Amino acid sequence: MIYLLLVSIIWAFSPGLIKGRLTGIDPNAVSVIRLALALLVFLPFFRPSVIPRTIALRLVAIGTVQFGLMYWGYLHAFTFLPAYAIGLFTLTTPLYVVLIEALVTRRWQTRHAFAAVLAIMGAAVLFETRSGAPSGWLYGCMLVQFSNLCFAAGQLAWRRTRVTLPANISDASLFALPYAGALALTGIFSAFTTDWTAIQPTSTQVLTLLYLGVIASGLSFFLWNLGATRVATGTLAVLNNLKVPLTVAVALLFFGEQTNLPRLAISFVFFTLALFISGRETA
Known about the structure:
Elements: H1 2-18, H2 27-42, H3 53-77, H4 83-89, H5 93-105, H6 110-124, H7 137-162, H8 176-193, H9 203-228, H10 233-239, H11 243-254, H12 261-278
Helix pairs in contact: 1-9, 1-11, 2-8, 2-9, 3-7, 3-8, 5-6, 5-7, 5-10, 6-10, 6-12, 7-9, 10-12
């Protein structure tokens, strides 16, 4: 569970570190750059000779879904929704984790489902109600749900695929393949939307892109999937939403932003209960 907690903390710091720094750069271009950097991080560890071809193709497909399609749905949703609405609609990921696992294993775990619902409530309590629905909210909501579904399905597919491989094959030697699949897909999307000649990033934007590619994407997605293989489904579902209250806490403690302290406390109570219910047994 330590890997999932570490990644949640890293992602909690990301909004405050990158807030407003990538304005003017096409979102598809941002995805291509960060995935290309993530791929470069793991290329030195790549050992294609020890990976069966069928498994290699499966890992490419997993990355295409978990990172490529996930980013497409998430970033495209910003065309239709404000940031607060997107944040609210992402909260369903824990439930997708539980539902997909139940469909695949044909075994319903009420305890895990209850933990996922508590995680959703724990994150939702931090969002303030806004009057009026944004224009295009339904299509935007569907895009975010598609993104959530892709991320949930990808981490579960990685988990099931990883256990079929010998233990002497390291996770690091495999992870270039998911990033390659995601990069190929986002590269295709970017070919239709991005004017690469018009992108002239500032030094601050370059540093931000390096952080996103190497840390927030490359290292963090790797550690997340590594952690996903070592916890129960319920715990994995719960931790998919832990970044929400952690982001609020980080904004309060490190970036001087204001927040509703009673809501933050209630949120952490929900997550504590969810983790207790989900249990700590390994997957």
